[in-house]
Amino acid sequence: MAKKAKSFFNNRPTIGIGVYIILIYWLVWAIIYFSIDLFIDLYTDLDYSTVFWYTAVAAIPFTFYTVSVVGKSAFSKWYHYVILPLLIYGFYVGSAYFSVLKIDLLFSALFKKEITTTLPIKDVQRVFARKSGNIHTNVSVLYKSTVLTLQGSRTSYFLLKDFREINVNMGQSYLGSYYATYIAIPTKDRWNARGEYFKDWFQRNYWLLAVLALLAVYGWLKEKYFPKPLKSTKAIHGPYNRFFRRVFFAAILLFAVFMVIVLLVGLLS
């Protein structure tokens, strides 16, 4: 009996320190992502090939480490040995490259001097990602006789679409990107823009609320009217089944939380 108990315990999935390190990495990435909308109103989204190649090289050890943490259980087919490492590597390169550029903007806004100037607005356009709504706003302005395309938050479109010029605190980052940390617009106009953004967000994402509600109703009905027999809990792979179910529902919950945070950041930016 003791032997069976020991075997059952050994079959239970465990989370090692490597998983926590990877989760911390993605948590830092998320903090950087949301910090941009909170502290930088507008900025140029320039590409830097040197930064890209440095991050591409730096992502290699992270990829190998992640693959080693995942373990052999993820490689059930031969092509998994090719596809999975490439996907992980792509995620790391993209996130690392993005993070370096955004950290450059945040540190520049914190330590570098800015000037107050007036920017004539040439065009304001939303950038969409399918039906999920606008992921950011492109604002074309005239700065020192040059037309710059600045990237703004989701609410920037509703805030700036009716303006012909704006007064901003303008600076240039260590890597050479332009950014604005403050736009001199009345608070009332900002709240009106947030209200328009909320209406637009809800119209595009109401399906998410419906899906979550249906999942909740499905889970309640299943547990109430179609409970599993007690003997099914004694299956050999029971611990793994429970583990993956928890991971699935945790992923759904985290996705819902992420969408709510995106909404809130948009309202606060």
Topology at a glance:
Layout: H1 2-10, H2 17-39, E1 42-44, H3 49-70, H4 80-111, E2 115-128, E3 134-143, E4 146-152, H5 156-160, E5 165-172, E6 178-183, H6 187-225, H7 238-268
Antiparallel strand pairs: 1-4, 1-6, 2-3, 2-5, 3-4, 5-6
Report on the architecture of this protein:
The chain is an alpha+beta fold and 269 residues long. Helices cover 60% and strands 18% of the residues. The chain has one domain (13-268). It has helices at residues 2-10, 17-39, 49-70, 80-111, 156-160, 187-225, 238-268; strands at 42-44, 115-128, 134-143, 146-152, 165-172, 178-183. The protein has a 6-stranded antiparallel barrel with strand order 1-4-3-2-5-6. The radius of gyration is 24 Å and the shape is flat. The chain starts with a helix and ends with a helix.
List the uncertain runs.
1-14, 232-237
Instruction: Tell me the fraction of residues in β-strands, as a range.
Output: 15-25%
What is the residue-averaged pLDDT? 76
Count the domains.
1
Q: Count of helical segments? A: 7
